[in-house]
Every structure is written in structure tokens, then in C-alpha cells.
Specification:
91 residues; 2 helices
Length: 91
Amino acid sequence: MSNFTICPFCGNSIPPAASVCAGCQAEAHRGASSADAQGAALLGIAACGGLGWFTGFHPFILSAVGGAVGAFGAGIVYSDKVTWKRIQRTR
């Protein structure tokens, strides 16, 4: 059993290519979450906006560039992140 993941909800072994647990139907979400991207974008906006204000070079333009770079960077940094979510569905 190499590279198998253990389900955090029911404890079943899950193959690497699977995106749903066979035991409890928990779903794997890979990559950066929207909260990760928003946090990195806010950090980029604050850092580049402060730099622009300090240097006097168009803080709004630098803030926009910093936000875009931060959100894009979060997608690269968190590309291997796996979050398991168990959603209760009703019929």
C-alpha cells in the first residue's frame, strides 16, 4: 500500500487517483482554496500598496499588481494541498 491516503472521517484507505472515499463519500478538493487565494491577494495588496505609498509610485497600480501576483502565487504554492470535505446530501 504505497501512497494511499487515509480518510479523515471514516479511516478507509483511498487510492491516490480517487477523489471520493468509498466508505463515507467524502470528497477530495485539490489545490488552493478560495480562502488561501484571498489571503495571499490581501497580503500582496498590503505589501505592494505600502511600498507604493512609501516610494510615491502609484500605490493603486502596485496594489492591483500585488493582489494578482499574490492570488496567482497561492495557486502555485498550494497546488499539492488536499482538503477533504464531507457534504451531507439530502434527496
